[in-house]
Amino acid sequence: MDRLANLLGVAVLTASDRLRSAVERELAHGGSAPAALVHLQAYPGESLEELRRVLGVSQPAAVRVVNRLVAERLVERRAGPDRRTLALHLTAAGERAASELLSRRTQSLRSLLDVLEPGEQAALEPLLERLVAALADDRPQALRVCRLCDRRACTSAAGCPLDHTTETGR
Question: So what's the pLDDT on residue 127?
Fold first, then answer.
């Protein structure tokens, strides 16, 4: 069992390194900015506080991320549902950047799977679904876990393994 855990750790760390490299190369900076773009593409109109929770950063850090994305014309602030909040939306350039980030993310992760035969990949999928399903018990946790997730890939016929965290399955 220790060997299995070690192998998983090596694979996860390598996947993380490749994923980070792929998304940072596209956006020209890392940190929380890539996840902010991907999340706002899936959930346009989120408030700064909602985005902060998903990113798992402090309020000042979230402001810095949003300010940087606004300065790069990837995000815009609009009037929120009340007078106290602002809604964050991607610009057309932000939409393109988020889509390209997800494409590069997928390519980097597919390269890890390419060593497996199609049958092995098919056998791995339900095991990964079980692991992912156990990563979150509620919607805030699920949004944090999926902050760089390609939601279109998980809304196929099989559905998202984290659907159990919310009544709407978002």
Answer: 93
CB atoms within 10 A of CB 41: 19
CATH number, domain 19-162 = 1.10.10.10
What is the mean pLDDT for each group of 10 consecutive residues in the chain (170 residues)? 90 90 77 94 95 96 96 94 90 95 91 94 93 92 90 77 68
